[in-house]
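Q: I'm building a small set of examples for a reading group on sequence design. Run inverse folding on the following structure and report the sequence directly after it, with nothing in between.
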C-alpha cells in the first residue's frame, strides 16, 4: 500500500473518494479541495492506493485552534474525515491513513489528534476505538431561531 499527500485538487482518487464519503455538489468538493491544497499548514488530505494505483481510502485533517471537545491542548489536529472503500476494509488502510495524519499533526506542533462522529454511528465509534482514539464526551447540539 502507498499513501500520498494530496497537493492539488486534481490528485488521483481524491475527488471520487470524497464524493462517496460526503455526497454533495462536485463544485463544492472542488472548492474545498482547492482551499485545502493551498493551505498545507492548516489542512492535509491523504489517499491510500493499492499497488495498482487503485484508490483505497482517504483521510482529511485540519489544525484547529478553536475549542475542540475533549482536547486538552490547542492547537489540535482534527481528523475531519476517514473513508475506506468496502472491499479494502479490515486490511489496515484506515490505520495507515490515521498514522499518516498523526505524523502530520506532530509535524505541525500538536500533541493531540481529535475526531468526532454522529452519536448514532456505532460503526464509526468502533473504528475510532480500534484506531486508538478514546471517547472523551458525548454532546447533543441545540439551536433556536430568534
Amino acid at each position: 500500500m502507498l499513501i500520498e499527500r494530496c497537493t492539488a485538487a486534481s490528485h488521483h482518487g481524491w475527488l471520487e473518494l470524497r464524493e462517496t464519503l460526503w455526497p454533495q455538489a462536485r463544485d463544492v468538493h472542488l472548492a474545498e479541495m482547492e482551499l485545502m491544497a493551498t493551505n498545507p499548514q492548516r489542512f492535509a488530505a491523504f489517499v491510500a492506493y493499492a499497488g495498482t494505483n487503485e484508490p483505497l481510502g482517504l483521510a482529511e485533517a485540519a489544525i484547529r485552534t478553536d475549542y475542540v471537545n475533549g482536547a486538552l491542548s490547542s492547537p489540535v489536529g482534527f481528523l475531519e474525515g476517514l473513508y475506506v472503500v468496502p472491499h479494502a476494509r479490515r486490511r489496515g488502510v484506515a490505520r495507515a491513513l490515521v498514522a499518516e495524519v498523526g505524523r502530520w499533526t506532530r509535524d505541525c506542533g500538536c500533541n493531540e489528534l481529535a475526531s468526532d462522529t454522529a452519536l448514532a454511528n456505532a460503526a464509526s465509534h468502533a473504528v475510532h476505538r480500534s484506531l486508538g482514539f478514546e471517547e472523551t464526551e458525548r454532546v447533543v447540539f441545540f439551536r433556536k431561531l430568534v
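Helices lie at 14-21, 26-37, 93-107, 122-130.
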